[in-house]
Write a structure and sequence with these properties.
Helix content: 40-55%
Number of helices: 11
CATH architecture of the largest domain: 3-Layer(aba) Sandwich
Bound molecules: ligand L6N33NVT, fe (ii) ion
Distance between the termini: 31 Å
Strand order of the largest sheet: 1-2-3-4
Length: about 375
């Protein structure tokens, strides 16, 4: 079966599904067919796929349950032996967490588009990057996907190869590497590629925790958002999503990369560790996670007399439940309950000028030799 995509100049990209047996069903032939119908040439396009964590399709019980089941079944995310984890996940967690998390997502949901902020922002990052890079090299096509939920990595890889992408750059949108994030994005992409008879050439973008473009963007964005506040914080927390301490002990470089990001950011801002502290948020389960915990630190500092606090979240390429609800909502309350007076959660880099400059710098560097 042929699938085709038409372009404004009358050219047509045609992809033939292989549909011939056991080795998957990805597109196996790509060609540009010109209007007169007889000329076929290789499409030769370069695909860039931005991937972020994921998102439920809705905040109702079944959408939340589907999403959490996919997410929490991933062995890269929960490493506990299946014999122990399976009954816990399918018992208590999937019967209670979907309602609880759904209510939290309701607080931040983009009702206009009926989707989570993470999906809205990731789409915008993809669209802005696509428009920008098409001016750099018209062979480049950019798309975006979610590791869990929709749009899936597999469907976007199919679409990119069908559109003629013979070279492909996968970009996990995580500045700091963790097996629970970067590695699982790549695993999922290679799982989809393993089903294709005719694979594109593939690269994956490395973490960019110490990339000067990223550090400069964080510094500029932090200064810009602090200047817009009606107070000057006594202390700024750099809050990262946590991981279980045991993952760090097994060799996950995430903790070290978070620390390095903040060390470099302090150097650019000219701040010491007493002004910009590192903390870890979003614990899940009973195991010990990376410390210090954000919520405990916020409470302690408020009790110790800190009255004005700002929080930046450099590990999140886009605002999401964990930044908009957990930090801007829950932690603001914790601060005030313990005597704090002014609290601000600063926006992530998102699709801002600074944020797009980082993604563009990473992508252009990783495309070198291809463009
Ligand atoms: C169970 C363990 C979890 C690990 C390990 C984990 C690592 C991890 N997560 C992110 C980024 C995000 N996580 C988000 C939501 C979220 N995370 C977990 C659990 C683990 N994360 C859960 C159960 C959830 C769902 C929400 C909830 O029920 O509490 C999000 C937000 C997604 C959104 O749509 O807004 C992000 C982003 C990182 C970077 C990371 C390890 C470094
Ligand atoms: Fe998470
Ligand atoms: Fe959370």
């Amino acid at each position: 079966m042929f699938r085709s995509l038409e372009f404004g100049n009358g050219a047509k990209i045609v992809a033939q599904d292989q549909g011939n047996g056991s080795n998957g069903s990805g597109p196996s032939r790509r060609a540009i067919r010109f209007p007169d119908g007889h000329e076929e040439i290789a499409a030769g396009r370069i695909g860039v796929l931005l991937v972020n964590l994921g998102t439920p399709d809705g905040t109702d019980y079944w959408s939340m349950r589907r999403y959490l089941k996919e997410f929490l079944s991933d062995r890269r995310v929960v490493e506990a032996p299946r014999l122990i984890w399976w009954p816990v996940l399918n018992g208590i967690i999937l019967s209670t967490r979907p309602q609880k998390s759904g209510a939290l997502y309701d607080k931040v949901w983009n009702t206009e588009r009926n989707e989570s902020p993470l999906r809205t922002i990731t789409r915008s990052q993809g669209e802005k990057l696509g428009a920008d890079l098409a001016r750099t090299d018209p062979r480049i096509i950019v798309d975006w996907a979610m590791r869990y939920g929709n749009p899936s990595i597999a469907e976007k890889l199919d679409a990119l190869t069908a559109a003629g992408a013979e070279r492909l750059l996968i970009v996990p949108l995580y500045p700091q590497y963790s097996a629970a994030t970067t590695a699982t994005v790549n695993d999922k992409a290679f799982e989809a590629l393993s089903q294709m008879r005719w694979q594109p050439a593939v690269r994956t973008a490395p973490p960019y925790h110490d990339d000067p473009a990223y550090i400069e963007a964080l510094a500029a964005s932090t200064k810009k958002h602090l200047a817009a506040l009606d107070f000057e914080p006594d202390i700024v927390l750099a809050s990262f999503h946590g991981i279980p301490k045991s993952y760090f002990e097994k060799g996950d470089p995430y903790h070290c990369q978070c620390q390095k990001t903040v060390r470099l950011l302090r150097e650019v801002l000219g701040w010491g560790p007493e002004k910009l502290m590192v903390t870890f948020q979003s614990r899940f389960g009973r195991e010990e996670w990376l410390k210090p915990y954000t919520d405990e630190t916020v409470a302690r500092l408020a009790r110790e007399g800190v009255r004005k606090m700002a929080v930046i979240m450099p590990g999140f390429a886009a605002d999401c439940l964990e930044t908009l609800e957990e930090i801007a909502g829950e932690n603001a309350e914790i601060f005030e309950e313990n005597g704090g007076e002014h609290f601000a959660a600063l926006p992530c880099l998102n699709d801002s000028e600074e944020g797009m400059a980082v993604i563009k710098a990473v992508v252009l560097r990783e495309l070198s030799g291809w463009i």
